[in-house]
Amino acid sequence: MDYIVTHNTDACRFEILMDDGQISYLDYDETEVGLVFAHTYVPKAFEGRGVAASLVKFGLEYAQKMNIPITPSCPYVVAYIKRHPEYEQLVK
Question: I want to staple 24 with a disulfide (CB 3.0 to 4.6 A). Which of 42, 44, 50, 58 is the partner?
């Protein structure tokens, strides 16, 4: 399924508004050396549907487009990058 991911710069996170009104997100911290991808949250009712993967892919593509290095502190982001080595060059 395709999800619409938005970048909420005020909250420092990438978000998907779920069809029941809940929000899934990947939050990050901005540092002097780049973005720290800190935490991925998906409501239980939506787990296993590719929501987290959509969030992480969007975040990584954003960092790639903006030429911003990332530090993955979220275990899901670490696992995603291992499965998608094309994003390894972003990790600093």
Answer: 42
